[in-house]
Amino acid sequence: MSKIVVGFDGSDHAHDAIALAAGLARLSDGGLVIAAVYPFDAGYDAMTYGDFSKEARAAAQRHAASPVPGAPVAARVVVGAASAAHGLDRIAREHDADSIVVGSTTRGVVGRIAPGSTAERLLHGAPCSVAVAPAGYADTCPPVFAGRIGVAYDGSPEAAAALRDATVLATRAEATVRLISAVEPVAFASWGPAIEVAGDHELTSERLEQARRDAEEAAAELRDRIEVETEVLEGDPADVLVERSADVDLLVCGSRGYGLLRQVLLGGVSARLLRGAHCPVLVHPRSASVPDPEVHEAVGTG
């Protein structure tokens, strides 16, 4: 993460984003791009929109100039755009950013992520990874993720890309990486006078064992460099990840939806994770080395 774009508008959730971005920047080789986006639409009548646009731009300039203690600032940028998401996306592309960091909506519960429109729009097409800080993060954030960095892991190419991100951060923070895998119980339906659904415990056990082998194999390749833990649990993947997010400082997951390469496109698990996570979540975009997603039984990335 040599270049991190962080959206700042002076709000509480923007301060949460700054705190998260500063923590990430301290583990990178580059600096922050402080981005302030003000509403501007060239389609509006200039006579009625011009004064509002000037005032909004002036406010954005003040926000962009805000001090950021404890992290290097590479640039301060102010742009006008139809939405904050469009503006941040544009800045990230122009600066060839590695990540965009935003805060949660102000309507979220303290300690939880509840993405508002900006985060949700970014998470469906951003050109780089997107990190979302939970509400109140600025008041509770740990020092540079010194404890555990979690990875939603299922053995897929997307999960491997997320693990690479987490490994780099954990190495520099001297933190532990925890691979978290979830296997949904296998069930089958029998047809007769009434439909009966029963669990297939044997098949579920086989899939749990395979998930353990996959996680241990990935962990073994890293243990000569960093401390790695594995955790394989039975249950709904999104529910498992939300629950385990309370025990890590940062949770990294891959992007699993169909979409353009090098873009974020959330799948169902990662979308639910973002709405319930107790810690910051970093979503890695699909890369050119990741093929179109396949069905993976031990799903962890959504």
What are the main properties of this structure?
two-stranded antiparallel ribbon; 2 domains; 12 strands; alpha/beta; Rossmann fold; 10-stranded mixed β-sheet; 302 residues; 9 helices
Question: What's a concise summary of this model?
Answer:
With 302 residues, this protein is an alpha/beta fold. The protein contains 9 helices and 12 strands. Strand 6 (148-152), helix 6 (157-173) and strand 7 (176-183) form a beta-alpha-beta unit.
Secondary structure elements and their pairing?
Layout lengths: L2 E5 L4 H14 L5 E9 L6 H19 L8 E9 L2 H11 L4 E5 L13 H6 L6 E5 L3 H4 L7 E5 L4 H17 L2 E8 L3 E4 L5 E4 L1 H20 L7 E7 L2 H8 L5 E5 L13 H9 L4 E4 L18
Parallel strand pairs: 1-2, 1-4, 2-3, 4-5, 6-7, 6-11, 7-10, 11-12
Antiparallel strand pairs: 5-12, 8-9
Helix pairs in contact: 8-9
SSE sequence, one letter per element: EHEHEHEHEHEHEEEHEHEHE
CATH first level of the largest domain: Alpha Beta
N-to-C span:
23 Å
Low-confidence stretches: 194-198, 257-266, 287-302
C-alpha-based Rg, rounded: 20 Å
Please tell me about this protein's structure:
The chain has 302 residues and is of the alpha/beta class. The protein folds into 2 domains: 1-141, HUPs (Rossmann fold); 144-302, HUPs (Rossmann fold, 3-Layer(aba) Sandwich). 36% of the residues lie in helices and 23% in strands. It has 9 helices and 12 strands. The protein has a 10-stranded mixed sheet, with helices on both faces. A two-stranded antiparallel sheet has the order 8-9. Helix 2 (46-64) links the parallel strand 2 and strand 3. The longest helix has 20 residues, at 201-220. The radius of gyration is 20 Å and the shape is elongated. Residues 194-198, 257-266 and 287-302 have low confidence and may be disordered.
